[in-house]
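Supplementary notes for students who missed Thursday's class. We covered one full example, reproduced here. Read the sequence, then the structure, then the short commentary at the end.
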Amino acid sequence: MTSTSLRTNPHNRPLHYAPVSKTLHWVTAVLVLGLIPAGIVMVNIGEGALQNLLFNMHRSFGVVVFALALWRVAARIAYGAPAAAAGLTRFERVASTTVHYALYALLIAQPVVGWLMTSAYPVDVSVFGLFTLPHLVHEDKALFEALQRAHFVGGLTMAGLVLVHIGAALKHTFVDKDTVLWRMLPRSWGG
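Structure (token representation):
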């Protein structure tokens, strides 16, 4: 950790997110922003090589998101997070905390549900052709359909929460003109 990431406020909370937390956040953001539309496209295009490729890439990147999410949780525990921005209303504080924890939960749950769903189909989850995950459950059409619905609802929920998260960051930057977004940007960008 650099000396700048060790600076804390009077409440012993860091002023910025740790560099590892920032990196994990932005890599996860790029992956999720790709996985959501890819998931929509892959279930709506016809069967064939492109659909198979999209399914395989979606599964592989889903495993990466799962690993990054676990790493993010560990980094948050190890390095903490800045306190809520000054001047937030009680509603804004509760909403911010709720959205953040819901996103963390979905970043972990969505890949697990996808893995269970794929196991119940049954299809192997080959991660970029490097290794194959074991099946978690036996073939079960009813379970597959229930998990498919859950994964769909989870994806829509995540998309909505991502939009709220982005909207809040933009509001903080352009309306409130505070430093909330800058705490998550790389230092080279002024964060």
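Commentary. Residues 1-10 have pLDDT under 50 and may be disordered. The radius of gyration is 19 Å. If anything here is unclear, bring it to office hours.
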